[in-house]
């Protein structure tokens, strides 16, 4: 009996609670706001502290996958400079500073790549275009970039000093012919000529060789007005005599510059660059072929 009473009491209590909740929901037609709790700000991101590595290695140069990346990098840099300073005034090619660019072999050693001649010529054209910028308006970055492609010991950077007669009245001339080299020191005198410390008659037995050696003095009628001390080496008799001709003519030109037309016309100051052509295999001489025999 007591258990039945307890069950009925609990049932009535739960029924009353559910009715109270239902009545409350029916009468409230608005929503209540929850209490706002201030959220904590996230710490700032320090991008410099990231130590993640990319999934694959990124090449340092955009031309890494080309056949010659270093060469392409130089071309791209030069083209960028050319486009950047295209509005600067330029001068004529004849008025631009003379530059001794790398030769092909030197440039290949510089970049460490087998660059073809055609591609290197295209790079030189860009260098020449940048070199034509008006000298007093050349930017520093262009000047530094051009200097990187100059041969060591630029031959155009040193001005040639004109040769003159020294304080002792000596004029020095040098001449070459075939394998012979001659150096002449010419002073005013009575016509004495020494070759390697000996008389010219002792060194050159033939009259033709002696006349060839002294041709510069003979054609200008100065045989008895100058003394010559000559050092000659290499080659044969004919080569030595013709080397002395050029050296003597150049030395005489320092004493008397007005004789240049005469010496030029006589061929006394012109170097003869001809050499004996080599013999080829299967030939009798340089060009002569053996006689053809049918059988």
UniProtKB/TrEMBL annotation:
GO cellular-component terms in the record? mitochondrial small ribosomal subunit
One Pfam annotation reads: Ribosomal_S9
One GO BP on record is: translation
Source species, domain of life: Eukaryota
Give the record's keywords alphabetically.
Ribonucleoprotein, Ribosomal protein
Cited InterPro entries: Ribosomal_Su5_D2-typ_SF, Ribosomal_uS9, Ribosomal_uS9_bac/plastid, Ribosomal_uS9_CS, Ribsml_uS5_D2-typ_fold_subgr
Q: Name one GO molecular function term.
A: RNA binding
Tell me which family the UniProt entry assigns to this protein.
Belongs to the universal ribosomal protein uS9 family.
What the entry lists under PANTHER family is as follows: RIBOSOMAL PROTEIN S9, SMALL RIBOSOMAL SUBUNIT PROTEIN US9M
Tell me what this protein is called: Small ribosomal subunit protein uS9m
Please spell out the taxonomic lineage of the organism that makes this protein. Answer: Eukaryota, Fungi, Dikarya, Ascomycota, Pezizomycotina
